[in-house]
Amino acid sequence: MRPDKAAVVAVDGPIAGAAERGQRPSELRLAIRELLRRPPALFGLFCCTVVMIWALMPGLFSPLDPLEQNLDRYLKAPGYVDALGRTYWLGTDQQGRDILSRVIWGSRISLIVGITTVVVSGLVGVFLGILAGYNGGWIDTVISRIIDTLFAVPFVLLAMSLIAILGASLENIILAIALRTWIIYARVVRGEALSLREREFIAGAKALGCGTTRILLLYLVPNVMSSTIVVATLNLGRMIIIESSLSFLGLGVPPPTPTWGNMLAEGRAFLDTAWWIAFFPGVVLMLTVLGTNLIGDWLRDILDPRLKRLGD
Amino acid sequence: MTAYIIRRLLQSLIVLKAVLLIVFLMLQITGDPAAVLMPLDATQEDLARFRHEMGFDQPLPVQYYNFLFGHGRNTGVLRGDFGFSFRHEVPAMGLVWEHFPATVQLALAALLIALVLAIPAGILSATFRNTWLDHWSSVGSMFGQSMPEFWLGLMLIIVFAVKLGFLPTSGYEGPEYIILPALTAGLYATARIMRVMRSQMLEELGQDYVRTARAKGLGEIAVVVRHALKNASIPVVTIVGIELGFLLGGTVVVEAVFAWPGVGFLVVDAINNQDYPVVQAAVALLAFNFVGVNLAVDLLYAWLDPRISYR
């Protein structure tokens, strides 16, 4: 359906553009109706919205200071009330810090790393994927072999080594993850571009004298957008897990900044005495990833049902 | 077919060469490999001597050549020589090889668990589509794909090792030690294989030959097992192979959680101690493995399904 729309725009630009604008509200309404009929997607949207709001305004929701230490509150169970009458709903950790506040503040790093890597690797992947698929020839061969190679290298190990060498900062973590993740987008987009370039509307654009850059930007990019959005949403959860794995292994944003991964790593030493330290950050982490996956599934069904068989 | 095999072999060789380039560049991005490889308290003279000894003062292409074919006492990575581990003072590749069997054991055990759980679950949820069984297994696989492995590992330790005391928390001292790590590592593969199995079965069950089989009075079990399952298995073989490749290279976090003495555990330790020859050797070995498994899967796939055209 998308290529045809682009074809119409190509032939009689402004009129078709107006028609497209006219169509949009109904598409949106369809999407909302579809959403209401799917409780899992609604649940996913709910989880993601909550975490998103936490990450944007943690100070508003966090009941206490996530960094405030007090050894009098060493490893208190969930629901503990201190002398000042403050409740620690999810308990305290080995330094007496409030777990709930730390979980809320911890959402920041996860979302910043997750969203930035998705955007960066998405841009690079779409660009290189289109380039490879549309041009073919040696460009395609080179890019495809790079993809194969990066696919073969153990991802977590590569990211860990890079971070260990470059130093554990936010930018380096994003760089280390994005360096490998773009291939997921490039693979999907390359496949799409391969089939798109055989389509009539591309031939039409060429016949009208469009240059390659113009064809790529105006005709190919819009047509690979829907699958890119689907892959990006499904990928976001994976990125959040990778970030917390790195953080868990001591290669994330360094303490005292709370991240879900380093909270879990700290909780690991207290599995037998204070299960709540490792339990709650993991629950929130899982619900966040579950949320993005559920939204991704829903987007895939409405935007691009053909992707259903794609695993990754 | 022969042409296809040769083409795939050549492709794999190119990928392997590129992997070695990445492994080589890993040290170069530090700017000064000598400083990374030498102890922190090394003097400037030590550094200069080491730089010269290792050939780090030469141009990059020469260094790469030396890295591949050897330089001085080093016989080159093409002969499996990645240099010495600083920490353990033994050849890096030998050290990685020593830890490799544990990783293979864990990967195979995880895959076994995944297959035992995923294949029946996939078949049943396709056969009983849209029943409670189907819905619950979908929910299960959705959770499986969303759960961070290391967190599941910690929770399994809390429940089975700490609270119930059934199983050991970590280590490698007997067969019971593999259960929790394998369950943890197999989770993601289980969810993925189940989803593919289900969708393949659904597709086959909608085909004409299934209707024919039913029309001629075949029992439902025979239709599902003898007809649909056979055809649905081929894509599942591919995904199982891919998952095995991932498991062989991707149990790092699980090994770290359970102190399972595989390659991943070794590498985490090596990274924390800046023992880069070990890291390089491990990355190379695991990547070679992945390429090998994938090549095998592709060839198996081609052999199983003669309809595939080999361009």
Give me some keywords for this one:
heterodimer, A: 312 residues, mainly alpha, 11 helices, 2 strands, 74% helix, 1% strand, disordered N terminus, B: 311 residues, 0% strand, flat
Brief characterization of the structure:
With 312 residues, chain A is mostly helical. Chain A contains 11 helices and 2 strands, in the order αααββαααααααα.
Fold blueprint:
The complex is a heterodimer of chains A (312) and B (311).
Chain A: H1 2-36, H2 39-56, H3 58-61, E1 80-81, E2 87-88, H4 99-135, H5 137-152, H6 155-166, H7 170-196, H8 200-207, H9 212-248, H10 260-267, H11 275-303
Antiparallel strand pairs in A: 1-2
Helix pairs in contact in A: 1-8, 2-4, 2-11, 4-5, 4-7, 4-9, 4-11, 5-7, 6-7, 7-9, 9-10, 9-11, 10-11
Chain B: H1 2-28, H2 33-37, H3 44-54, H4 60-69, H5 92-127, H6 132-146, H7 149-163, H8 179-205, H9 208-215, H10 220-250, H11 252-258, H12 263-272, H13 276-304
Written description of the protein model:
The complex is a heterodimer of chains A (312) and B (311). Chain A is mostly helical and 312 residues long. Chain A has 11 helices and 2 strands; from the N terminus they run αααββαααααααα. Chain A has helices spanning 2-36, 39-56, 58-61, 99-135, 137-152, 155-166, 170-196, 200-207, 212-248, 260-267, 275-303; strands at residues 80-81, 87-88. In chain A, strands 1-2 form a two-stranded antiparallel sheet. Chain A is elongated and about 80 Å long. Chain B has 311 residues and is mostly helical. Chain B starts with a helix and ends in a 7-residue tail after the last helix. Chain B is built from 13 helices and no strands.
